[in-house]
Write a structure and sequence with these properties.
- By secondary structure, the protein is an alpha/beta fold.
- It has 21 helices and 15 strands.
- Strands 3-4-6-8-7-9-10-11-12-13-15-14 form a 12-stranded mixed sheet, with helices on both faces.
- Belongs to the type-B carboxylesterase/lipase family.
Amino acid sequence: MAADRTNAAGEAGTGPDPARAADPDARPLVSTPYGVVRGRYEHAVAVFRGIPFAAPPFGVRRFRPPAPPDPWNGVRDAGSFGPTPPKPPYSDAFARYLSDPVVPGDDCLNLNVWTPEPGPGARLPVVVWLHGGALTRGSSATPVYDGRHFARDGIVFVSINYRLGVEGYGLFPDAPANLGLRDQLAALAWVHRSIRAFGGDPDRITLAGQSAGAISVGGLIAAPQAQGLFRRAVLQSGPPEALERDKVRRMVRRMAARLKIPATAEAFAAVDRDLLLRTQAEIGRLSSPVLGGPAFGIVVDGDLVPRDPLSALLDGDVAVGADLLMGWTRDEYRLWLVPGGLLERVDRLGAVALAGAMARCHCGPEVPRGYRALHPEAGPAEIVGQMVTDSLLRRPLRRLADARSGTSYMYEFAWPSRRPGLGACHALELGFVFDTGETPESAKLAGDGAPQELADAMHGAWTRFAATGDPGWEAWNATHPVRIFGESDGESGPQEHHRMLSGDDAVLSGADAEPSGTGGWSYTAHGVRDRELALWVTPSPQAALPEVADDGTSTADPSSAGFSARGTELRSAVRRLRRATGGTRER
């Protein structure tokens, strides 16, 4: 695409300077609060990588809140990605689909900036990106997250690193909670303070993330300390949530038992870093978004997270007036079940799998029965996957949209990967949002030949939202408009496909049934998944089932209403399902 194209708002606006960018010796310089950085011109935009926003979180700073970086004299080179936080590698099954580069070094609290015009006069909209990876993996160095196309289209794009796993989300009696989230807050504050020098407008910051990154976005926009640091937010395949403290504490205690040390930050800090990562990966092996189990996550801490983030956002106490762009992929669960053949194993388990899903979702048999009635052609794995996705992801995002009607926009990504069995799986939309489908890392998940027209449609919507707060379709209202990305007019057709998903109640909006300027790759429908989500409205007699621990145990009072013979059967089903699938929480 031409470098002089209009920006996301459809205006001529400030853009890259091709003549200056073509000079191989050009090196943009920008002053930050801690020193001057030297970037590079690449693809007609200025790029600054590896800028520290906080001091290295090791030594005396291990398991402590982020501290300001040490200032430097002279000019700091910002031509390469900085170190990535410690993390275990993906398993072989997931590494076939997901890339996660490692850059060694301790100075891992760093960020990257792509900008079309490094200078205080540009005042361009800003996107701050939080990567996914189940809060245990991922980094800003992943090639799919290259921000050059956002900068090409008039957006100053920032991606950050933050502490992961036990370093960032371990729960200890002698250390603050939510250290990874505190890192993200420190980065957001750095951007708000410093981005004007890179050409950005601190009053037009969009905080965006996918999966664990979206959960982090939800935690930040609900945090009292973050109010005033952002204007808009994007939550892709991740809801605002806080895990039960006992769930995170179990993860730490199991690691401590394996390592034969006390479950304290002081003891964990003395363990070899590689051994700590191997132990973390082994303890988390049987956990997954579908099956639950011990995991790292945001917890209510009375400080940065004073209450459940979703509740705070639903009550309207925080993020007042913020525009929200939220959505999911059609087949989120397939990335969790297809690697390693788990989809087929869940299908073979049949009734056991459905019972496990009931326990995971705290529902009674009327819910899976309703899904079967709506989708009689679906097998157990699809029903389980869609049930869990609806319960944990789509329902809370829809509730948030209902509470923020008129300023929320919803989407569904429906294009199926060309890799066998993945469908429109979790994380597949990323290469289209970033318009980086040409990278080998994107092709690992999407396959070869991903349609550029779909990238144009989706990336264009995200840039418009960052610039104006309007991605280009109807805001959420009582008719439940959802933008569907990934359907070509030459395929099954929007109307037919949408009836397959949500029954006859889902209808296309007349004006948007024939999309213009996107090659037929997006359209607006109303009532998407209304019938499935309506199955959850009526409280079930089994709705009070206690949380199932990773070993199938529960601390619930056996005399409580939710603890029954049926509840015992469901917990047993979860144990059998986890053993049979050997699932892993990779994303």
